[in-house]
Amino acid sequence: MISRRKFLLASLLAPLGGCAARPIRFESYPFTLGVASGYPTLEGMALWTRLAPRPLEGGGMPPHAVDVRWEVAEDEAFSRIARSGNARAVAENAHAVHVEAGGLAPGRAYWYRFIAGGEASPVGRTRTAPRPGEGDERLRMALGSCQQYEQGFFTAHRRIAEDSPDLVAFVGDYIYESTWGNQHVRSHHISEPRTLAQYRDRYAQYKMDPDLQLCHATAPWIVTWDDHEVDNDYANDRSEDLDPRFLERRAAAYKAFYEHMPLRPSVLLAGGAMRIYGSLDWGSLATFHVLDNRQYRSHQACPRPLRGGSAMVPDSCRDRMDPRLTMLGEAQERWLDAGLGGSRAAWNFIVQQTLFAPAPRRNARQERVHWTDGWDGYPAARERLIRSLVERRPANPVILGGDVHAAMAASIHAIPQDPASPVVATEYVTTSITSQGFASMISGIAKENPHIHYAESQVRGYGLLELDRRKLEASHRGIGSVKVRDAKAYTANKGTIESGHPGIAR
Ligand code: FE
Ligand code: CA
Question: Which residue from 431, 400, 406, 433 is spatially nearest to 156, judged by alpha carbons?
Fold first, then answer.
């Protein structure tokens, strides 16, 4: 307590001189949220940490800037430092640190850490992407989505770390804004966030989880978001409850996302927008086309009266078929089409949020219904993406997704709802890390859709993808229980895709 008072006094007496960095002595350990790396290139990657001695109370930092030293080493003991430098942690960014490490060698592992005020962060392991033909024979990657904190422990992240992946992709619902579901094992410490300060505290609570920290410290991540990073079922500028100030809330949530992710500062755009879609090459083995399905999409068709957000709609909702509906927005669609055309990679992963294959089911009246928040709400946009795959012919397209809280595998047909048309891509959907499944919805979908080969809503876990030039082995990894700590992982299902033969071989 004494040190805290001294600390506060010192920050009050100090002149409030803009961004000038000042030496600091922390009242308590500042690296409570761990470290992370992301988006590896041939010569570097993004490195992240945030100074937060009191993480659940706004961070607990003084208002001035603090210099943070970063080091990237060739060995875990830091005896051979490859690159180092100073980054400035400023209050405007919640004292988050984003470093673009460069000048490294391609295709190898590195270790990194941060140092400030005489304290050192945990050590993270990361890697650079390989050059084509040099160390790109194989890749092991993990896929995660949907981690409602209250519904379970993040054991899946510990098991991912034990699998030692080269890369982790996370496709949304990293935080949940709301409390829902049953059989909670822990609680959100604040109610639904709406302001920047509240979103920061929500991220801080999730990021204090030791299993999640371990996974970030094990491999570089690529990330995209879905709705719960902001608000359930939002679309572009429209929220479910038609909040007239939604864009302010969205900007706050986007900024907090940036402040807690290993992203490059160049993702920040004017006016609270953020460009998180982009691509990443793993030698000539794989290209990852990472999409943003939320920020640019059209509003969902046929919403409930006086509401935004999703609905289950029958075929009579004609607005759903409007060719102007977009999931990605025009600029991102054009970018993706060009990226698919330009890729020379042996595998092309489309890394996005939700189920891509058509998934209608029957309601209680036996009418066919479609869920408007997923690609089924934007069938013309789905057809444009499929046309792009057919015309640009990228090798071995695989669509990765999450969101539905179920492990799924599907074949994507040239005419998506016609199983007699050729298979043009494979879809692999990871189940949730913790978020509870929707059993009757998923079994209803499986019954109606023969192109969906596998659908299991009662497994929590992650995806494990291992590939070389000949084949991709895609495992759905389950966690025994997310209601107890440290449960074991097991393989719930595994499929192999041979190069040149889209669709999952069972
Ligand atoms: Fe989710
Ligand atoms: Ca959702």
Answer: 433
* pLDDT per residue as tens digits for the range 453-477: 999 999 999 999 999 999 999 999 9
CA distances from 189 to 29, 206, 259 (A): 21, 10, 19
CA 492 to chain centre: 22
Strand order across the 35-38 sheet: 96-101, 45-50, 35-38, 221-223, 167-170, 139-144, 461-467, 471-479, 489-498
Contacts 24+ apart (CB under 8 A), 421-425: 423/502, 423/503, 424/386, 424/389, 424/390, 424/397, 424/502, 425/350, 425/386, 425/389, 425/397, 425/398, 425/399, 425/502
372 CA distance to ligand 1 middle (Å): 15
Contact 399, 143 (CB under 8 A): no
Look up the pTM and report it.
Answer: 0.95
What is the Cβ-side half-sphere exposure of residue 470, based on CA atoms within 13 angstroms?
Answer: 0
> What was the pLDDT predicted at 19?
62
Q: Which residues contact 247 (CB under 8 A, 6 or more apart)?
A: 237, 272
Report d(CA 459, CA 478) in Å as an integer: 6
Token readout for 445 is 């979908």
157-193, pLDDT tens digit by residue?
999 999 999 999 999 999 999 999 999 999 999 999 9
354 alpha carbon – ligand 1 mean position (Å)? 9
Closest CA to 491 of 163, 246, 250: 163
Q: Which residues of the chain have pLDDT under 50?
A: 1-18
pLDDT at res. 89: 98
For the CA of 434, the nearest ligand? 1
Which ligand has its closest atom nearest to the C-alpha of 175? Answer: 1
Q: How many residues does the chain have?
A: 506
291 Cα to the center of ligand 2, angstroms: 16
Token pair 């009418």 is found at 367
Direct distance between the N- and C-terminal alpha carbons of the chain, in angstroms, rounded to an integer: 61
Over the stretch 195-245, which tens digit does the pLDDT of each residue have?
Answer: 999 999 999 999 999 999 999 999 999 999 999 999 999 999 999 999 999
